[in-house]
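User: Hi! Is it possible to get a structure for several chains at once, not just one? Here's what I have:
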Amino acid sequence: MTVTENPGQPNAAAPTPPAIELIGISKAFGPVQANKDITMTVAKGAIHGIVGENGAGKSTLMSILYGFYKADSGRVKINGVETEITDSHAAIAAGIGMVHQHFMLVDTFTVLENVILGAEDGPMLKPSLAKARKELQRLANEYELDVDPDAIVGEISVGFQQRVEILKALYRQAEILILDEPTGVLTPAEADHLFRILKNLKEQGKTIVLITHKLREIMDVTDTVSVMRRGEMTATIETATTSPSKLAEAMVGRSVIMEVEKAPATVGETVMEIKNLVVKDGQGVERLKNISFSLKRGEVLGIAGVAGNGQTELLEVLGGIRPATSGEVIMKGDSIDLTIKANAQKRRHRGIGHVPEDRHARGLVMSFKTWENTALGYHNEPEFSKKFGMANQKAMLADAQGKMERFDIRPPNPQLVASSFSGGNQQKIVLAREIERNPEVLLIGQPTRGVDIGAIEFIHQQIVKLRDAGKAILLISVELDEIQALSDRILVMFDGIIQGERLPENTDKNELGLLMAGVDPEAEA
Amino acid sequence: MNTGIPKWVDVILIPLLSLILAFVVSGLVVLSIGKDPIQAIKLMVYGAFRLNDGIGPTLYYTTSFIFTGLAVAVAFHAKLFNIGGEGQAAIAGVGVTLVMLAFDWPHWTIALLVGTLAAAAFGAAWAAVPAYLQVKRGSHIVITTIMFNLIAGSVIAYLLVGPLQANGSLPESSRFPSAAALPTLHDILGVVGINFDRFSDANITFFMALLAAVGVWLLIWKSRLGYEIRMFGESDKAAVYAGISPVKITMIVMLISGALAGLMAVNTVQGQAERLVLGAVEGAGFIGIAVALMGRNHPVGIVLAAFLFGALTQGGVELQFEMQIPAQMVIVIQALIIMFTGSLENLVRMPVERLFTRMKKRAA
Amino acid sequence: MDFGSILQILDSAVRFSTPLLLACLAGLWSERSGIFDIGLEGKMLIGAFAAGAFSAIATMPVYDGGWGWQTGGMWVGMVAAIIASILLALIHGVASITLRGNQLISGVAINFFAAGITVLLGASWFRQGGDTPQLPAGGRFRPIELPLSETLSDVPVFGPIYQNLISGHNLIIYFGFFAVLATYWVLFRTRYGLRLRAVGENPGAVDTAGISVVKLRYSAIIITGILCGIAGAYLSLGTSAPGFGRDMTAGRGFIALAALIFAKWRPVPAMWACLLFGLLEAISTKYQSIDLGFMVLPGQFMQALPYVMTVVILAGFVGKAIPPKAGGEPYVKER
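Assistant: Yes, the chains can be modeled jointly so their relative placement is included. Here is the combined structure:
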């Protein structure tokens, strides 16, 4: 391997061929057509965005380009040369690097060891490590990519882990860098740093493909953008000539109303009071640092924040899944047991419903039939019980049947297992179960993650309906649009504290974004 | 995973093909030591099912295997791999021995009841420690139960040359009082006029095993606890969300599993040997794994698979007598069945699934 | 207890620990690559059988159907042991890697298979109830006197240690200690070792780096097979009672597994763990029971001690043992 001194120097004589050309790529997983006859061109030295909803086929397409999956048909040209990318090894050889959504790092290794893995020079480690140390120093200076080479990867923050992933690609002399949803786990500040790095890379002539579902990022950093919908590529446009609403329309196939129709809230008395809540995780790190707030009847209290700033822990403590380290939660005058002994069933008896953030892992048992899932957590209720500890399966079945009709869950067959439903219908199963119990307080996490547009509207309507019935709703979402559209009051969480409280009508994305990054604009001013 | 193959393929065709494969390879092994596999099979079938002195021992072994198979299956529904049936059954034997030797039994019914309780309690206790260590300390239950099998071996070796040893040089306990002897199938079937082999070891615990199978079916598929067990097995996160304590459910499941494994001691120690001897379990704990695998963790399948393994074990005895093939042939067959129906299952499953998806596509 | 008998116990501890050490290192290779292996016992057993059987065949007189070798028979046995053990390892590999089956069940099956097939073949080949014939000198590994052991024997303390403890073992014992260093060196100093450790922690990282997960894991499994084969060969070719006896591994594969956990999957600590467990075996062999003054420990207690210690260490009462993260899970590309 030789180091190219001036990577990406445009050839003066001939017009530069595009860095990437995908021609007629198709890929099916069983009956699911993930990519349908996709053709896409990315110019050399450009930042190219790919947007689309969850499940639109973005990651599959890029995994094919990186040789992780094999396309059923289609061709790939890199720098104008037809290239057969049979595996990741071939992709690396063709100068392609990828930063996966879930990092492909070995947690127990040092940064240096992770960087050289698979790109060692010769059978002995020592010279490889020495060379990589030097190279890392150079890359750090050049691209603002400084990471301690001797740090154990499992012990550094996700932002740094992502830099290690980028360093891995650059160390392998990648000329094309693919990033799959890189900002999902980053704070706005970290994301901005990432975009600075990407712009640096672009200036050095690297080609960058950015997969995201966040339109703001596309508008901010990309030169060109492709839109994917249901496995097909619907448009490729220059970013400068488009707008977020046009992109959104192209993503979902019709114009999207970001607003939710709702009457002003009639807020009643306080139902739940959270006082000085502290939660430590297994490693003893404080995830919630002394949080206090109250939740009132007839309001949707939205909690905004970048994922991983304590929202999950808050939801889990209130839902009875995780014990609190200290603090108090008072519901209708009585304090709730927050120790390990308290469980989610007791919480339900207190009138707390919970639509968990991760419906695949928590909200549903994927291999269970619908009628088993609609009883989840309520299976010990009298109407589902028979003598001698037996379950009243007939009652469960009838109950499921009714829920499926009322919530328009399709296909309405309670004998089907949860995994055979679409994301939207799965979420409706969870909502039906939790809402129909008529809880005093409903905890909702990421209600529309991975849910199709039609179902989103339905779900939002149900949330508003419950609010209008005088119930209290605690909504946690990483989608700022959703928080703004649904909430009557917004709390912003950052690093385990409540960074600020705002009314939706008195704030905007900018201010909320600053709060999410840990900056208090009012204090600054 | 939603593979879309019909259920009968999953529960009948695939295990059957795997089983056939195991037998074909077993046949090759017989051939390799210069014997005739066809003759061997005939002999085994004859030996296992011959009325009186064939079917009797077969049912005796079947009884033990039903218990250990159910033990593995119950744990499996909670995605716990209880590989410790061997040790749990062994320690249960100690429990049975202690109570049998402690009293003068007025009637066998009371002896059976108390023996059953002792076996279940000791088996459960021996499973409780690994379960507790898994939920509270995060130790891998498979490794801990393996270690507990080996520790059980040392404990029994110590007891039988020490505190429990009867007068004499053999490492075994005193004989239980004769009033504690359980009725054999000969005694029981004699009541309804069937003349069953009087020397056979099969005894009343065979019916207990069948009852246990029904009990496990009710537990897993009809009870609320079973619902919780299956939920925990499919998704421990969902179980916590539903308000189920992983600690509680793991403990309960392992106690039930250990108790079931322990019950086989009633069959072997109280029903057959009527004293504690070395190696009373003889691999039945491990065979339980094969039985549960073959039986797809369903009580009906387990009873059938246990019968198959019981027949194999008894048929193997015949091989040794008639064809001078060592009884270890049976262990080889059992190992091959575990392999082909367990770890190598995809050898059969993958092509069968591919075949069915292709047929489906063509039909569509 | 005098210096001489302490030396004697330590000397037999070294001998007892050798098969444990080799099997433990075997397990280390497999588990570091992400493949759980509870089938060490079975692979050792089949290795011991193949070694005993083929060494016997090589050294048997021609008129008895043997090859009539006067010397070197043990090498035939050694090669046979390694081949037999690798074959079982490959079955485990096909089950765990290619067919993505359950690694624990595969291990159980392999242990069962070995227990059955060794007696079956042994009994039908040699007609001694599953044992192999006693091996002549030319079919065994003999003790090697290291240079100067006689000359130095008069030096106080060091002399007897050198003569009795360090010198006078057979080749396999020395190989065992060499294997510790080799394992350490390969695992932590070479490219192959880096990749192997990575595949046991996060196979996805290895796959996306363009390295074949399957090939790496198979290579590890084969090394496991080789080391288990040598461990087995030691039992029938390298001890004072040469020849294979049925079930002669007697749970050593599980003790090796225990030592592996005890050593937290690291080669040098694995050596100390095996020496410790070997010492326990040496003590329990020499003394029926141990009088501690206030109580008498039965010999069985010493036998069970390695297992109890493993349970204790696994439970994290004495330092936490964290296995390789990807262990036991077949690698499937994410969908």
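The CA atoms of residues 72 and 82 of chain B lie 6 Å apart. The two ends of chain B are 21 Å apart (CA to CA).

User: Great, thank you!
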